[in-house]
Amino acid sequence: MSSPKTLQQAIIFYSEPKNCIAEMVAQRWPDGVVICPTCGRNDVSWLAAQNKWQCKSRHAKRQFSAKVGTIFEDSPLGLDKWLMATWMLSNCKNGVSSYEIARNIGVTQKSAWFMLHRIRLAMTETDDTQLGGAGSAPIEVDETFVGGKVKNMHKSKRVKGLNYSAGNGKAIVLGMLERGGKVRAGVVENRKLPSMNGPVAANVAAGSHLISDEHAVYPFIAAQNAYYHEIIKHVEGYVNGHIHTNGIENFWSCLKRGLTGTYISVEPIHLDRYVDEQVFRFNNRHKQTDATRFAKVLSQVTGKRLTYAEVTGKVHETAF
């Protein structure tokens, strides 16, 4: 069988260890030359009995598998399970829960939960090219709240909740969408200028055409970064010709459909990874097949690591 194109084909294809290893080699080393992750040399030999390579240089950790140096490193689970979980998460439109993964690949829910967080790390956007620029399509910028509903709050907190100034127990996600292009999004501390200006300036090129709602910080952000700025006043309507933020609002709808419909409850310390997952899915929704989306995630697993202590917040995540 050639490379799989559907979930059923993937299940059959990746049940063979040799196919899993061949896929990892194709994505990690496209030229077919296997590199030792410890010393960086290509003088290695294949140990067929162990499904590993051995570097001929003299150093510690001479033997290595296809998982070493990736998000899969030190996992006792086989690549067949990892690749199936990666296929499912990269292609399910509203995400896939850890319970669903556990039932489908035969692991515990705890293991599936940890696996999904590691796969989300590989789904993080790697293209740091700024959106927009002079003469480009408009950039819609907006923020949304993720968390408990104000109507469910105690009365003493509800008044503050209606203010929406600093979240009041909710997490705040800031997003920027280039019409006809990509979206960038991430969690910010609050809706004030110091917290919001940095992410916008880092992701939107100077001279861009910025469209926002009436939030008071956006004119200051536009002035500091040389943006041409237009405002849609939602008290008067949601569309005024080309002035609207319906594109980024659509992304918020996709994000919250996954958070509330699939994942139900998300801890604030994990929210950034769930946002990264939806950003990947949104940016790769067109001109992609299930196979190419899967391949793209797999091509980004190298050089990243997330331990259980890091994902549970016991230690800070490793910086690469």
TrEMBL record:
Every ISXO2-like transposase domain range: 130-283
InterPro entries cross-referenced by the UniProt entry: IS1016-like_transposase, Tnp_ISXO2-like
Coiled-coil regions listed in the entry: none
PANTHER family xrefs: DDE_TNP_IS1595 DOMAIN-CONTAINING PROTEIN, SI:DKEY-17M8.2
Protein name: Unclassified family transposase
Origin species: Granulicella tundricola (strain ATCC BAA-1859 / DSM 23138 / MP5ACTX9)
